[in-house]
Each structure stands twice: as structure tokens, then as C-alpha cells.
Amino acid sequence: MKLGLFKITIRQICLQNCRKNADSVMKNEDPEANLNRKSIRRALRRWQNSQQLGEHPLARLSIVEARRKAAGYRSTPIGYGVALRDVLRHAIKKLMPGEGPPDPFEKRWRHYLLLSEGYIGGRSPDYISVQMGIARSTYDHAHASALDALADLLRGWDQHGSPEDPDLAFLRPEKPRLPRELLLLPPKPDHPLLGRDTLLRSLKSLLLGADDRPMAALSGLPGVGKTALVIELAHDQEVRERYEDGVLWVGLGREPDLFVLLSQWAIALGLPFEEINKLERLKDRAKVIHAALAMKQMLLVIDDVWEAHEGLTFKIGGAHCAHLVTTRLPKIAREMAGEGAIELLELDENVGLRLLNHFVPEVTSTEPDEARLLVNEVGGLPLALVLMGRYLRREARSGQKRRLKTALESLRDAEERVRVSQIQSPLEQQPSLLTSEPLSLKAAMDISVQALDKASKSALGALSILPPKPNSFSEAAALVIASVSTDVLDHLVDFGLLESRVENRFTLNRSISEYAGITLKDEGAIQRFVDYFVEHVVAHQKDFPAIEIETQNIFSALNTAFERKLQVQLIAGVNAFYPYMEAVGLLDQAQEHLTRVEKAARQIYDTHGLTSTLENLGRTAQRRGDYQGAKNYYQEGLELARKHDNVKSMCALLQGLGVVAFSRGDYQEAENHYLQSLDLARTSSQREKISALLSNLGTLAFSRGEIDQAEVYFMEGIALAREVEDPHISSLLMNLGVVLARGGVLEEADIYFQESLELARAEGNRMVISFLLTNLGTLASDRGDEKQAEGYFHEALSLAREMDDRARVSHILANLGGLATTRGDHDVAEGYLQEGLDLARAIGHREYTTLLLTNLGVLARERDDLDRGESLFTEALELATEMGHRRFISIVLSNRGELYLKREDWGKAKADFEKSLEVAKEIDLKEYIGRASSGLARIAKAHGDAGEAIQVGE
Hints:
The protein is mostly helical.
């Protein structure tokens, strides 16, 4: 026969005791009759008022009485109210379906979340239904069900529960004992910690090392993941084993109650509350806790520190304890941890995509560009990505693609992104947030910004005008645009809102920039922004390095000037910026801005600005091979310049017309324009322009085969450029090197090329650098060093691709294709030339299209694919004829003549050579005069006419 174990219930215990004091303050009625949905709802609505809770009938439940006695609360309405609140809190917690952070989208979490968020959190039904993704009718039904479940649970506890039940341990009167491992820390989040592996390993190494009292302090932007990193570390099994007595966690926030928080640590450590409560000085409470920790191995986490002295209040671990601190303020991290201060940075794009993919893989897989844009728009802040991910996941779970698409579209708006929010459980609540406030990027940012003084807030808003990270801006720009002192900038840096990793330069995270920009009202800051960078580019027009570092700021200022119709600044800024844009290959951007400026200059009748703009539009069209368009711009500009006696512009526009004529093979017309411009330049003492024109004349003479005359022009130009310290002397040195190389003086040519390259690099003129590398490749090829030649060509190609100078890329590919053809590597040559041709066609560069068609024709001829070669040469000839490009006409005809010779089609070969010779003589193109004459001599020899062959050859 088995002996039964008899359990004494709470109800039996309470019946054995007389509740005299309780009867004096409450009506004599049966509390069990009130264990229903309506009564429990009324009690929960009184959650914040202990007096009213104590006067509610549910306060007479036996289980409430048991809790009051166990906790030592007084027998008053307030005492019973506090006890009832404790019971309700434990009962609601019992409705949790499992461990870990609540998932508002899981049905099994509904009962717990509806009660905890609706009553403990104080949130409205409409808000909760939206956050849980359910209809209001569903909410009402689930809410009623949750109240019924709570009533059933309380009824069971009251009638049959016992303090011996594990679920009712809070009713036991014994003082709680300190468990072996105390874990006062938030739960791990519902998403993985990504992109922090290296830092985690480093921090683990610190914590697991032999040093006593290891200390580290993490600082970083709001939402960068400082707390999440520490939570991950505190939950790590190896760390838990090393600090076997557990974790003490405290969240300080903006206005911490240090006395209360220290008391919580003391109580957690098992120290008598009565004794701790008697200690009225902070240092006395800290000493008692420090003594309790003397022999323990614990990890102490001090989260969200805003003042160093507040954080140091909790740096009270013993010799075997470790301390981890999180703070938004880098200055605080340094003050508390010294060398142990670590700044946490944002996630890079790839890691950000992985985090977003955790929540909405359907977005990252089907809308990769949209996902990438979202990651970049929030500047890689983990908090923003988590909030957006949860929001998108909620919309995706509806199964309606329309809802997900609408959600994605809404997130394109900066204000919507910063306002996306998420309910938090009490354990996840950030110390600085109000209990009833949902977590959002805006809420996280508000905490930092609200702590700033008025001047710092205004400065942050003004600086949001500047392009965000990875762009940077100078201290000088920040001081002017924000109109503040350096002290204010230093204050923003100390608060972690403004970053400064390079001396005298700053940057703003994109999310902070967007947050600050939403409330920007200082129109004067916008005007100062535009004025500053327009003045900067005008003052440094020839100083490319000074412009390069501010490129994104200048572009942004010019766009702002356009949007706000600041036409004077727009015209001055774009025209001053153009030489740099051309030098680094930003032709698409130049075209866009110059088109805007042309319209603005015509609207306000700014003839000087319009003249400069037409010159620059002409240069852009010329660079793209649109010679007729370039000529039209130059001619209109020249008419304006002459009308207003603008000699400087007249020189430049005549020079431009000369370059167009030269590019089309009209050498005589080119020379006329150059000489007219040179005469004006000499008359008006424009020494830099004289130097540039001598370079043009030298190039023309070289193309005619007048090598000695070309050298004379280049030497005179170089001497003048050195005299006036013209930063563009590198082009003259390069051209002289080309002349010397063609004359066989290779060593001296190399010297000029190298000096030119050094100057171009110092100037930051990547266009000239790319030209020079190409010429060095040609020089190496002339020396027979094909490997070095190919190396130079590839370096030039890499630079051109980096600049997105598609015209230059196609030209270099033509060189690489020609080199591969010469060495017999025909498949490689085909690849280079076809890629170059596709690119030249795509951008409409007719000159380079003609060159590449010609080179492909030569390759086909070398492969004995004569029909294809003929087709390619014929297409090239048609294009050259359409352009009126006589130099290319002569070149293509000569090469096609060689093909006909190979085919032994003597009549067609003779016709092509004769026409090539005629055109070459017209423009004094000596090289092709010789080639065409050689072709005709070979034809005569093939027909047995030795006399004619000799005569033509001579």
C-alpha cells in the first residue's frame, strides 16, 4: 500500500488565518465570483494605481493574500494592490508560450502580448493590432480569449495551487538564495549578430585572458548594435563558464536613479534589502556590493552610459570580475576604459544585405537592387535594418505582393524609414526610452539629439545638407555652413553624432543625416552651403587635388543651386568645375550640368556665362567625337565673344574650332584657327593660352610629318609653360616625348614621358595620366618590349575604367587589339577590338568607331578573312566620309588597298591607293603618302611595269 502525499493548498492556508486588517478595508464578498473576463479587465485597467487595485474584489483572492504575506507588504489597500499586481504580472508571464523574445506575428504569442502590451505597456488596441498584423475584429476576439485564459489560470492557482508548485515559487516566504549562476541580462534577439565576428573574438580573448578585472567600453552611433554585441558576448558559453557566478546587468540611460539601480544589484546578490535601504550615500551602497563581489567571478555590464561618473559608480567588481560598458559617446568610452575603448562601426553593404535577408529573403532574392538601396539608405545601421526587416516581414506574411511592394515604396521616403517602429518586451526596453514608447530609429536618435544644446542641434541640422558618409567635408566648410564655433563641432563629435577620423575633416552617417534633415528650417544654411562650394571651386579651378577631395560636395551644391534657381552661382560653379570634370572623365555629369547652365544663362541674359558654357559644351561634344555639335557650340560662342569683345573667350573658342578641324583631318583650317587664336593670345598677353596653342600647332605639324617644326613648337611651349608655372605643362612634355619617340630618340622620349607623368600625378589630371600611360605603352612596343607595353596599356585601361571615361577605354582597347594582332594573338585581339567597338558605338564616338572598325579590318585581313575585312573597311570609310575626317579616309583606303592587293584585285587596290594618296597630299599626311605610293608601286611591279613602279615609289 502506497502512502499518499497531502498538499496543502493556498486556499486552505488562508482559511486558517484571520484577515482582520483586510476586512477593515474591503467589502465582505466572495472574490471567486469576480474571476471573470469583465472583472479582470477592470482590474487590469487600474494597473498603475495601487490604491484602486487594492480596493478591487480580486485583491481578496487567497493567492493575493499569500503573496502579500510572502513579500511582507502591509495590510492596507496599497499593500493588497501591489500584491495583486505581482500576481497578475506572474500570471500574464505564465501565458508566454516559450523562452526567447516574443514574436508578434506568431498566433501562440497572442494571449501574452495582448495583455502585457495592452495593460502593462499601456498601448492602444489599434496600435497593437497593427503591430501584430491582425484585423481589429481578430484583436477583439483574441483579447476576450486572453482574459478568459487569465481567469482560468488565476482560478486554478487560487483553488488548487500550493507554494510548493514551481510556478508559484513567488509565494514562498523564504528569502531568495543566490543561485550559482546569476543572469541579470536581456534575452538574445530573434536575429543573428552579423559582421562582428572579429570584434567578438577580440573581446572574448580579453575576457578569457589572464588579466585581472578586464575592461572594455563600446561606443558608437545610436542603433549601431553596441548592446546587441554585449548581449551576444554575455550569452557565450565560454564566457559563462569563465564567469561562473553569472552576469550583473544595469541599463543607465539619460536620467538613471543610481540608488535604485545599486539596490537592485544588491538584492540580486542576496544582500538584505533592509540593510541596503539604510545606506543613504551612493558610495556606501557601492562599497557593500563591492565587498559582496570580492571573491566572485562575474561579468558586470554597464549599458547606455551618458555620464562617466554614473558609469563608474557600477565599476565595482572584485579582482576576478570583468566590466563591459556601452555608450553612445566616444569621449565617455575613453574616460571609462582608456585603451579599452572601442568604436563600433556600421555594417558594410554585404553584411547589411545578409541581415535584411534573415527577415525577408523574398525581397533580397527578387528585388536585390531595392534591398541594396535600403541598406545604403540607412547607412548600414543594424537597428534600422532590423526594424525595416520586421516591417517588411509582417507585410510579406499577408501573402499579397501588393502590400510588400507598397511597403518597399514607403521605405524610399527618409521620414518613413526613421519612423518604422517595433513593440519591445520589458526585458528588451532600452534604458533611455519611455516604457510606453515603441522602438524606432527616430526614437533612438531623439535621445541623443534631445541631449544637445540649441547651437549643437542647429549645427547638426545645417550639416545634414552635406552629402553623408562615405563623403566627408572640411572643418572650414562645416564652420561656415553651420555658422558655429569649433567648440560646437567638438561637442557633436564627443556625442558621437559627427565623425572625424581624418584631421580637419568630418562625416555624417546617412541615417543621422536624414533624421537631422527632416527638421531643418535654416534656409540660410542652404545658401551658405551653395556659396561656400561655388567659391571653393572658382578659387581652386586649376588645383585639381583641392577640387577632388570636395567633388561630392561640389556636385551636391550645384544640384542645390539648380533646384533653388540660384542661377548666378550655378553658372559660375559649373563652368569653374568643368576643367576638372573633363580631366577625370566625368563627361556625362558635365553634359547634364552644362545643359542646365546653358538654359539658366539664356534666361538671365548672362552673355559672359553663356559664352563660357558654349565653350565647355563644345569641348564635351569634341571629347565624345561629335565634331559637328562641337563646331556649332564653338561658332555660337565665338559670335558672342566677338560681339562683346571678349578676347579671352575668342582665343579659347578659336582654339576649339582648330581642334575640331584637326580631328576631322582639315589641317589647313585647323592651322588657320590656331594661328588666329595665337595672334590674339600674344596681343592680350595670355601666356598660358600661348603655351597651349603652341602645343596644338606642334601636334598639327607632327601629324603632317613636319617633325622638326613640331619639336620647335613643343620646346617653345615648354619654355613658356615653365616660366609661368603652368600646371598643364605635362601635356607639352608628353607631346614632345611622342615626337622624339617617332624620331627614334627613345631614351630621351622616355625622360619626357616620365617627367610628364610625375607632374600629371601631382596635378591629379587623370585624363593626361591615362594618355601618358598609353604613350609609354606605345614607346615600349617600339622598343620591342611587348610585355611592358601591355602592362602600360592595362594600367591606362584600369584608370580609364575607374574614371568611367568610356571614350578613353575604347581607344585603349584599340591599342591593345592592335598589339595582339601584331604578335599574332588573333583571338585576344578580337576580344579587345570587339569590346572597344561596342563601347564606341554605345557612346556615339564616331572617330573611335572608325579606328576600331579599321583595326578589326586589319585583323580580318591577317586572318585571311578577306570578305569580312572588306566589309569592315567599307563601313569605316563610310563613317569617315560622313564625318569629313580626311586623315581617316586616307588611312582606311590605304588599308583596304592592302586587302585588295592580297586578293590580287588590282583595279580596286589601285583605286584605293590613288584616292588615299590624293587625300594624304591634301592634308600633308606624309606617312600615308608613303604607304599609298608604296602600294601603287607594288601594283605596277606586279604588272611588269618596272619604270612606273620606280617612278611611283620615288
